[in-house]
Amino acid sequence: MKLLTALAQYIESLPGITRDQIDAFADLGTLAPTGVNLGHGFEVGRFKYDAVIDIDRCPAQVATLLLAGLVVWLSENDPGRDERELDDPDIDVTLGDDQTVFVQITVEFNESVEIVENDAGLIAWDGRTWTVADVPIYVATSGTVEKG
Question: Do 13 and 58 contact (CB within 8 A), yes or no?
């Protein structure tokens, strides 16, 4: 639920919004086993869920900033949404008093669940121990081609 956490932190960084105004949770989650070998670890599954973020007493003038910021945040932090056929965010806004609104954002996410081998890991599998972590990706910066 890295994306849910990161999105909630982004929203909290907006002017006039504090942590005590935000309630964030994953809803309607499904976990699909994958077992994909990524070289230095495995993707063991995909977690598809609705990230629900409720914002209480959101300053009305911040609501439009929130909507624009959400679109930009998603494009930068969750690219490939169209390829994964994820729904567009649902936004519900309820008027509060003259200066505040109540906002509920629902965003569909589909995240990789990855494990890497670790002697102190808590997951026993295939005779080894593993921990939940992003599998590192190593990119070659140079190389040699030998004629043979």
Answer: no
